[in-house]
Design a protein that fits this description.
The basal body constitutes a major portion of the flagellar organelle and consists of four rings (L,P,S, and M) mounted on a central rod. Belongs to the FlgI family. One of its GO terms (biological process) is bacterial-type flagellum-dependent cell motility. By secondary structure, the chain is an alpha+beta fold. β4 and β5 form a beta hairpin.
Length: about 375
């Protein structure tokens, strides 16, 4: 029998999935679900970064930068002569993005990301001019301005250049001020809705049972496999305390459906739980792997009061011979198959083809996702 070694070409991040305990660990309700209406809102704005050391937009190729500078100067009461052509090297047109957190109030500071739109070489040392930040509804919710901080190193010598990190993207810590808050309807009619991160009817039922066992029958009711309606106290102060306790409730989520994810470029294989196979025979090129599962019986001594335990042990015979057939008997773990293919130097394409064939034949009892 060949000795298994760690793979060189393929990385199986969950090869030990067959040893996962059958019972899921308890998780906080905060990690399993979110409260409807408590969410972030994306903000975006168009602005100018000035004060660059000759690394700004090449205005002959980015006419929108010239138009933006001319419009800004006109707002400041400066009218350019007709037919004047600006040759700017210290200005860059940028997009400013950030997220408005839930319950944000006017005056709160936000971090913003500044990204070059044109062909500026670097935003290092630049200053973002006052930029309105708008939401999806077109309303202004914040104003951004400040010195742009760019990480990374850029060097050029003897006609060759070395660049580490992106010099055309920077951040401004606390560079935006919230100007308008978003109305929230959380707790309207003394009812909130919990939305599970993943739709699962069993988990929704367990959440309802956990909430009702703590706060009494009728407190929570499942609307479907994802949304759970919960009654809250009437006062805002009591509601906040209630939600804080609610998020700390521990629930044992149901095991998710078996799933195998494979990266076709790197050959990485990830399994979310123990995945077993039905009996099948596979022939692929010159690969030959035989996996047999044999029951191992562990019987306690007489009169010891113990119980007999039967476990399945996989025995793997690895070969690399043309024209052979890989025989996989029912009950074998997919992790064992992956380890066997890794040990004989199978390529990511080989593993991908085999997994797809096993899924098509009905042997792979899991959802196969190729990324």
């Amino acid at each position: 029998m060949a000795k298994l070694t760690f793979p060189r070409l393929l990385v199986a991040c969950a090869l030990a999935a067959s040893t996962i305990a059958p019972l899921a660990q308890a998780e906080r309700l905060k990690d399993l679900a979110s409260i409807a209406g408590v969410r972030q809102n994306q903000l975006m704005g168009y602005g100018l970064v000035v004060g660059l050391d000759g690394s700004g937009d090449q205005t002959t190729q980015t006419p929108f930068t010239i138009q933006s500078v001319a419009a800004m100067l006109q707002q400041q009461g400066i009218n350019l002569p007709q037919g004047s052509s600006l040759q700017l090297k210290n200005v860059a047109a940028v997009m400013v993005t950030t997220s408005l957190p839930a319950f944000a109030q006017p005056g709160q500071m936000l971090d913003v990301t500044v990204s070059s739109m044109g062909n500026a070489k670097s935003l290092r040392g630049g200053t973002l001019l006052m930029t309105p930040l708008k939401g999806a509804d077109g309303q202004v919710y914040g104003m951004a301005q400040g010195n742009v901080l760019v990480g990374g190193v850029g060097a050029q010598a003897a006609g060759s250049s070395v660049t580490v990190n992106h010099l055309s993207v920077g951040r401004i810590s606390g560079g935006a001020t919230v100007e308008r808050s978003v109305a929230s309807s959380v707790g309207a009619n003394d009812i909130i809705r919990l939305e599970l991160n993943a739709t699962d009817f069993a988990t929704a039922s367990r959440v309802v049972d956990a909430v009702n066992s703590r706060y009494g029958p009728g407190t929570a009711a499942a609307l479907d496999g994802r949304v759970i309606q919960v009654r809250t106290p009437p006062g805002s102060d009591q509601r906040v305390a209630f939600l804080g306790q609610l998020e700390s409730i521990e629930v044992n989520p149901a095991r998710l459906a078996a799933k195998v994810i494979m990266n076709a470029r790197t050959g990485s294989v990830v399994m979310n739980q123990s995945v077993t196979l039905e009996t099948c025979a596979i022939s692929h090129g010159n690969l030959s792997v035989t996996i047999n599962t044999e029951p191992q019986v562990s019987q306690p001594p007489p009169l010891s009061g113990g119980t007999t335990v039967v476990t399945q042990t996989a025995q793997i015979d690895i070969k690399k011979e043309p024209g052979k057939v890989m025989l996989v008997k029912g009950g074998a773990a997919l992790s064992d198959v992956v380890k066997a293919l890794n040990a004989i130097g199978a390529s990511p394409q080989d593993l991908l083809a085999i997994l797809q064939a096993m899924k098509a034949a009905g042997s792979l009892r899991a959802e196969l996702e190729i990324i």
